[in-house]
Predict the structure.
Amino acid sequence: MDYSIKGETMRNLLFKNITSDDRKQRILSSSEFMEQKGVRSCVHRHLVCRISSIAQSSDILPKPTLYVVRKQDTRCRVEHFYCRIKGQMYLSTSEKVFLVSFIHSLRIELATAQQSNCT
């Protein structure tokens, strides 16, 4: 499949926005697929956000966690990268205090356009 127009590379993008009925949880997702100069890339971003009303904020929240994995297969010429951060924060208005919990992930896959003898 040829994605080029006038020498430019086209990207296939997919966006999702899912909100719960009570509007207390939102999931945002995007995927980008591109092939340029013999390299096929897939980038996936995902965000989950939950909001809950609380009576009073405590001073101590757990520290955000960060998880990173990188895998590279030189024989098949494939590279995978995954990053996830998970945390919480307080938001306040003049009347209410909210606890916002979030998870954000990023996954990148790079591969040659023509892979031979790799499964």
About this structure: The chain has no helices and eight strands.
